[in-house]
Amino acid sequence: MTMPADLETDAALLRETMTKALAKDGVLADPAWRAAVETVPRHQFVPGFYLPADERDANGLTVWEPVTAELDYGRWLAATYSDTTLITQFDGDEPDWKAPVARHGGASTSSSTLPSLVVRMWADAEVTEGHTVLEIGTGTGYSTALACERLGSADVTSIEVDPRRLEQAASALYGCGYTPTLAVADGLYGYWPEASFDRIVAACSFRAVPPALLAQTRPGGKILLTLSGWLYGYARVLLTVAEDGTAEGRLLPGTVSFMSARTHAAPAFGNPAHWAAGLPEKPRTTRQSPERITAATEEAFHLRFLAQSAVPDAQMTTVGEVVHLVDVVTGSAATLTPARTAGPCARAAR
Fold it and tell me: Mind telling me the catalytic residues?
């Protein structure tokens, strides 16, 4: 199937509609960022992505359907110009979008972040004309393109740990006329060849603030990143770097989450049943239900961040009704099991 002749016209109309909707929601208060969103063709950066099917498979796994212009032009273009995060990669496997196949379950490892959040990140970092910026996590390149449109390509450096992902992003960026500095690099260490920067913005999360980023930011410069942990608690922080190389700042409001930097991702911990086998047989009643931190609420979102600050190496998984907590560093483990007459019961060791 060939691409419709009026693709650019269709895309321009949908891009205008998306821009007006974002402006109405207060996302594009800065005219310069609005102009960037109006200009950058997002469809050039997402030749394919995955959307969830209406039903799970026989094993209860989410079925992720590939969406491309060739498979369903209308669905592809409409989703592209919606304020939605589009998953483009699972488990580090770069898809062949000329012959894509459905995915069953899996961990998303790359995406095109929803446009409102992309703009919010640049705005929260107080990026403006004349700033040199380092973006950590090129992804599809759409966010990079917005920065280039606003600042000019010469002031934008973007790094990506996945060489195949960067190759796709580079092709899209150069095809649209943007020429930022691009490199395959681990965001944990920044990018020394282009340092120092006025702003560093990370589109992935870290367990702690990487020291290299402090060293690569000019005094008075700012770093915007997301702190996360293995309990999947998140908090965004905006830091200002001082003359002595230290930095301080505040946690920003909201419930924003990003994929972990791959070197900070949680390790595989094995079979929960193996961890539970060595626990004491006699349980005790807990003061709080695990829903206190697992519920889909803003309070639980922030409580997860506080909980993982106390137990930074703990991980959590649920099997049936039983919640398992394991710590691959210390070997500690616990289970929480619903009780019929009282609160949840816990068994713990080490």
Answer: 110
